[in-house]
């Protein structure tokens, strides 16, 4: 939350400056608290309610009863053979049988990596190399993915279907320009060389400059964003 003065503060959602009394504190799935203006509040509450769509799975510690991210949880085997689920802090204090203490997070991560490797190898043998993995639905798609920044600050690559659903659920903070959109702005072909892209940028940025009658600040920024987007792939 950005503090502007004693009465005006910035909304963590849209960044607008609003009176302090209009802000509402929302606790997000990762435990962070965000301050939202009336316009962003319903979106933040909906995102917090649908935590499974923007956050990792969570489990409850048998010791302190706190709810934490699943990868941080450890299964601890006590001396009498009882297995309890603990957060790292409680696991360190539990009277565990050292030889029987296992880390659920390590096993889960290893199993996930193995499954992903197997799936990736199988996919590379069976599908077109132009396909890419959507980080939301975990499906391989041929459509160009969207670069998504969620309201909790994570960067994701969503397919068009997941992007639309994420916007409807109010979990999207920003959507980056896609490569195809950038090429349209600069009027270059998919196979354009770096020199051709640079030449197109200089041509379009002159035309879009705010000092010209044909230009504006928004057009200038659009051309600049398009050029920067294409530079990511070079």
TrEMBL record:
Residues 110-126 have a biased composition (Basic and acidic residues). Residues 98-127 are annotated as: Disordered. It comes from Natronorubrum sediminis. Coiled coil: none annotated. SMART domains: DnaJ. This is DnaJ domain-containing protein. InterPro entries: DnaJ_domain, J_dom_sf. It holds the Pfam family DnaJ. Residues 181-234 form the J domain. It comes from the Archaea.
